[in-house]
Amino acid sequence: MGWFVKKYSLAFYNLVIFPIIFVISVFAKYGRYGYFLAGIYLILSILVYFLFDDK
Q1: What is the pLDDT of residues 8-54, one digit of tens each?
Q2: N or C terminus: fewer CB in 10 A for the chain?
Q3: 8 A C-beta contact, residue 23 and residue 38
Q4: Organism's domain of life (predicted)?
């Protein structure tokens, strides 16, 4: 997701919105499960956003 946001010059808040959508969809399907995965998803997205530079 970080690469996609960087490539298409989307707003930075998109990196926060998608993990929230992920948590809501997992909660709706499985109940209390997968919250830590959203944190990992968010951290990886932010790392990819700042590490990959399209020069």
Answers
A1: 887 888 888 887 887 788 778 777 666 777 778 888 888 888 887 65
A2: C
A3: yes
A4: Bacteria
Distance, CA of 41 to CA of 46 (rounded, Å): 9
DSSP 1-55: -HHHHHHTT--TTHHHHHHHHHHHHHHHHHSS--HHHHHHHHHHHHHHHHH----
Tokens representing 39 are 């944190």
Q: Please check the confidence at residue 55 and state whether its pLDDT lies above 60.
A: no
Using a cut of 0.85, tell me whether the model's pTM lies above it: no
